[in-house]
Amino acid sequence: MSAVFLLSCPDRRGVVSATAAFIAEHDGNIIHAEQHVDGSGDEAFFFQRIEFDLDGFGIDRDAILDAFAPIASRFVMHAELHFTDELIPTALLASRQPHCLYDVLSRWRSGELPIDVRVVVSNHPDHRDFCEHLGLPYVHLPVTADTKPQQERAIMTTLTEHRVELVVLARYMQILSDDFVSEHPHRIINIHHSFLPAFIGANPYRQAHDRGVKLIGATAHYATADLDEGPIIAQDTEHVSHRDDVARLTQKGRDLETMVLARAVRAHAEHRVLVHGRKTVVFS
Amino acid sequence: MSAVFLLSCPDRRGVVSATAAFIAEHDGNIIHAEQHVDGSGDEAFFFQRIEFDLDGFGIDRDAILDAFAPIASRFVMHAELHFTDELIPTALLASRQPHCLYDVLSRWRSGELPIDVRVVVSNHPDHRDFCEHLGLPYVHLPVTADTKPQQERAIMTTLTEHRVELVVLARYMQILSDDFVSEHPHRIINIHHSFLPAFIGANPYRQAHDRGVKLIGATAHYATADLDEGPIIAQDTEHVSHRDDVARLTQKGRDLETMVLARAVRAHAEHRVLVHGRKTVVFS
Amino acid sequence: MSAVFLLSCPDRRGVVSATAAFIAEHDGNIIHAEQHVDGSGDEAFFFQRIEFDLDGFGIDRDAILDAFAPIASRFVMHAELHFTDELIPTALLASRQPHCLYDVLSRWRSGELPIDVRVVVSNHPDHRDFCEHLGLPYVHLPVTADTKPQQERAIMTTLTEHRVELVVLARYMQILSDDFVSEHPHRIINIHHSFLPAFIGANPYRQAHDRGVKLIGATAHYATADLDEGPIIAQDTEHVSHRDDVARLTQKGRDLETMVLARAVRAHAEHRVLVHGRKTVVFS
Amino acid sequence: MSAVFLLSCPDRRGVVSATAAFIAEHDGNIIHAEQHVDGSGDEAFFFQRIEFDLDGFGIDRDAILDAFAPIASRFVMHAELHFTDELIPTALLASRQPHCLYDVLSRWRSGELPIDVRVVVSNHPDHRDFCEHLGLPYVHLPVTADTKPQQERAIMTTLTEHRVELVVLARYMQILSDDFVSEHPHRIINIHHSFLPAFIGANPYRQAHDRGVKLIGATAHYATADLDEGPIIAQDTEHVSHRDDVARLTQKGRDLETMVLARAVRAHAEHRVLVHGRKTVVFS
Predict the structure, then answer these.
(1) pTM
(2) Above 0.85 for ipTM, yes or no?
């Protein structure tokens, strides 16, 4: 059982020393620490992830952030504190395609993804059996042009009811409104079925085939109101050739999407992602 | 010593049999044969590469295409014939950056690239020593806004003098005119310092850094008047992270460019590339 | 609906022409054809995969092999004929670990793997619910040192009952006897949790961690009596670092195993694999 | 201009804080810091790389290690201090094959590898021209069974004369004696033309071809008396297929060797490698 500080602030002399001293003074044992400085000179920005043992730590877990406040304030820090025994309450949104949804659920069940899946929401009824078999509430909210705003409100209500703090769009094919996205900054992870910013739009594998690409890709990113600007968390590609027809491109693409989304959700769930403008720092 | 047919035509019953029979009738021994059908139904298009031994073949090499003409005509084929002992006369165009130029030259010298490098053209004097050390003519054609058209004509003259049939743009930073490009269809190979169609324009590695991408890429393609439409021959990517500053991204990018360009030039030089619209078939 | 010839024979002039002519004479339309020659001179060996439309083909599907026999005989060919509408009857063998089993089943259900899964056999009861939920018979055959031979006979009986022609070892942790393996030449696909021939034995990820490797791998191969000699069908690797502890290596390894096994099963199921000694030709 | 601490010691509470405080007290600014803990409990071992600005640092560079000694002593640390403006004096050893030698030299010339190449030693005369063209002494020491010990002594003398601290075996095909290797612990980088520990011995690409592998690899490691135990610095693989004959496997292998060796030399030169038993920690 450990605690994780995610810290960011303008880079200043002494910042590493100050946080390390704070933990040492209270008899904490640092398990992992990674830091990064982006940019240089006056624009240099500091990022840090420190994981330390709660066992034997001299401050009660509820009081740590308060005790740390003077340091955070001195360095004008953005400071988050997480505990590895408190899994992030998560909702999965999916449409008809099962590959990402089933993969996240199977990794969650095997203990590989430290999230607390509370509910699955879909605009299709297809996955009800599977989800209920796993003991998960399945909320079916079909969407038409007319019902879209009201169904989005229903999603919000569902998220609130289940106290959800992370939304994973597991190939959810409905575009969410700017309002919805803005209310969950860096709390919605999307998987894009292509290599951003290439081939934005419908049928990316058809586009890739028509263009004769020799690689296809997938990108997992935080959703933002401006779709193209969402901070990228993970990306990967796979070689393809003229022998790959649209069906096989799609199949290879599904495998990529699945893998890249899982990698992004894991990084977020393990508190290894810090966002800075439209970039991320993803500690290893 | 062998001959290579590169054939393409609308897909029709019997085409494979007809070409195989032609070679068998004249006691040819097929060493490699690969074929591909793109699309289906009426739009299906057939591509084939057949490499066969010239040793013991019943027709003189100069007469083969004529003897094959009835078959080509029956299937409305585009037919090219190449001989592996006739290396493609090649010019390299480079600017200041050496990595692609030196790599192509070193692979050429080691016998890895079956091309006949005849001349190096550059708008900078930097590589003269190295090229002349290798016994290659080095044509220095500095370019300003005013002299651009006349220098391009000088390049054309140089290519004609050396009977060049393949132009490799080894990070040549001047944009060639549409006329120049159109006169050498599928005869100019360019390496693009990024992942097409992403990050077109100046400073792609700066753009990639600012965007926080987790992958960078390189694309080798035939140059066409419409830059974005050049048929892609080879692509690759490399993982990067927030730890890669612009300098290291650039370095990783150079390695990728070098590798991908070499792969594309080799495929072309070995007569393994067929162009179809804005796509390529690259046989292995 | 199409037919697939898998042919191999000593390389001789005219072999390509003979098979192409056979198909053309009976009004067959070749959809795909790939060939390969391994070695040179007297030891050159020829491999071919030809897929052609059964629609309009002049011979009844049951009579094709007989009609082809004279050609097969003339070239001393090993000839197999498959039909794409006849899926290979398949058994999956698994132990406690679910990742490969569930992945193969989910790809099979989505139509991605053209196999006909008939039965799942396991030495553990864990996956009964899941398999029966999918409508699959689940045969639980627990194994102890004493019961091993008799349980293996029970597996054989099960395979015979279900007329199984392909056995997929989806992380089946019991070593099969030489007799069992020899009775199913090139009909058992195994996934090896490492990079053959490195780290053979127990706990490969622990071994890899202790050795400080920077890559881990997975290998799918046909099982043979001599484990290290099984012809390799597919392999892949993934970068790792000192940051990956044994748990994370194992997790990454599971993803690799899953992916590589699926790739190998697909290649076999699509009749794209030819075995030659201890090597394979895997057409794309 | 900065300084780099490479530290390792048994993991103890307060170690991060102690080193950070040391730098902060003397007004140092930490530019990069990475740490790693290997193992757990009593066997946990701590590794750290800290890079800090020398500009404005309160201790003269020659006095830093002395000032740090009490901390090093308290934590039973192995402590190294490097300065980024002091490039490692390096010798390259090569045989007939040029690819690794030329690649390292070209990256060194372009400023990509922060090493100070002082001399090239070879048992063949082939590369004299090229090296002398670059202004490098070229020591030709041909080796026969009889002259081997004396030529190795001549190599040692050469290394001493040039005060060499890093030896890069750029495909040097002579086996160095245990004595030679033991005198340069973690100071000799070798590139192995295969994927360790697979295919040890002569002609690895022939072995890989005969075995029908679907991947080839290269491994860069520190040379040790026990060849198979040398701590691995970098590894990579490349997909291959039945279409790759031995010549093409060799070519792809050369590209891999070149790339992987460059990556390892760079990591060492940037003081990012710590050795622990037969493993390495390679900070990014």
Answers:
(1) 0.92
(2) yes
